[in-house]
Amino acid sequence: MARYSITSAIIAALLFCAPGFALAQNADADFFRGRTISYIVATTAGGGYDTYGRLLVRHMEKYLPETRIIVRNVPGAGNIIGANMIYVARPDGLTFGTFNTGLLYSQMLEMQGIRFDLGEMSWVGKLADEGRTVVLANNSGFSRIEELQSVAKTARMASSGIGAASHIETRMLMDMLGLNVRLITNITGGDTQLSMLRGEVIGALEAASSNADFVANGNGKYALAIAGEHSGVPGVPQARDFVTNSDDLRLLDLVELIAEVGRPTAGPPGIPPGRLAVLRDAYMKAATDVELLAQARTVNIPIQPGHGADVATRILLILNQPPGVIDTLRNAAGPE
Question: Which of 32, 49, 168, 287 has CB atoms 3.0–4.6 Å from 305's, for a disulfide?
Fold first, then answer.
């Protein structure tokens, strides 16, 4: 009898609460009807982040009925300007966007111009696991990472710029593995592959997806990966296979963790929880939409979606680094 009374009470409570919960959810979803959302891409049009962002927006609109999403490209200062704009936007759920995860390094190093705190942002989701890979041009004469450890003449590799993620990560890799390499800075986007084809640099450390076409077309090969189990480049030697020092392994853990939140989407701090839940739901439905996945395959970009709550947890783990790691990052962020 007592068990029956307890069960009845639970059922009654659920029946009482469910309509209110449904009404709250409907109210949050209805807020977006007839509204225009600004999706900020913190890069110029045509690049990888722009491609991911526009693909997402095209399908996310389907899961936010009667809502229009407009992409705004806000480049500058290595994605800092666009990320700042997202951070200071009104937290009503009508402004969010994407930026390079290299800004995690920028925040940890307290670089100039930063107004954002990535740990406070409203994370909507992420679209990819951006495992880092060293790609070597086939015309370079190099095919294995070990050859860069023993080469007599210093080889040249591309870097997007002092303080950028590719620069920091390549510098760390050079120190860990003893690579005889000099970085040529301010080579970005498609210019990286052109520089490899012209023989100006032998290769670069970038996301695997950034050079997928380059490798598929027979212009280069992946020589090393800094990635977890979802690297997208199976069979490629892992950097941690060459490293035994515990401090170096911790740095590789950090790079891999950052890679797991690739191509993210976030809004300003303080988006109401109900509205954020609606955005996260629409995001995940779009990210797993069969049409989006088919279109992603045609442009050769990988999709490994992640929920905003999980991304938020990982961001806090990334930012929580001991002073020794921050010192190493600061050294790697400077000139050679």
Answer: 287
The pTM score is 0.86
Cβ proximity of 196 and 259 under 8 Å: no
Q: Quick one: pLDDT at residue 24?
A: 52
Q: Residue 13 contacts by C-beta under 8 Å, 6 or more apart in sequence?
A: none
Q: Which of 93, 87, 99 is nearest to 126 (CA)?
A: 99
Write out residues in the chain with pLDDT < 50, as ranges. 1-23
> Measured between alpha carbons, how far is 195 from 1 in angstroms, rounded to an integer?
79
Could you give the CA distance from residue 98 to residue 199 in angstroms, rounded to a whole number? 33
Q: What pLDDT does 229 receive? A: 63
Which spans in the chain are helix H?
Answer: 2-31, 48-60, 80-87, 103-108, 146-150, 165-177, 190-197, 212-216, 246-259, 273-287, 290-298, 308-319, 323-333
Over residues 84-115, the pLDDT tens digits come to 999 999 999 999 999 999 999 999 999 999 99
**Residue 98 corresponds to which amino acid?**
T
Task: Determine contact, residues 230/159, Cβ cutoff 8 Å.
Answer: no
| Residue 203 CB coordination number (10 Å) | 29
Q: Report the distance separating Cα 65 and Cα 336, nearest Å.
A: 52
Closest to 39 measured CA to CA, from 26, 21, 56 = 56
Please tell me the distance from the alpha carbon of residue 261 to that of residue 146, in angstroms, as a whole number. Answer: 29
Locate 250 and state its tokens.
Answer: 């911790």
User: How far apart are the C-alpha atoms of 112 and 77, rounded to whole Å?
Assistant: 10
Helix axes of 308-319 and 273-287: crossing angle, nearest 10 degrees? 100
Dihedral-angle region of residue 235 (phi above 0 means left; psi in -120 to 50 means alpha; beta otherwise) = left
Burial class (CB in 10 A: 0-12, 13-18, 19+), 75: middle
Query: Judging by beta carbons within 10 Å of its beta carbon (0-12, 13-18, 19+), is residue 262 exposed, middle or buried?
Result: buried
Looking at residue 225, its pLDDT comes to 93
CA–CA gap between residue 148 and residue 99 (Å, rounded):
32
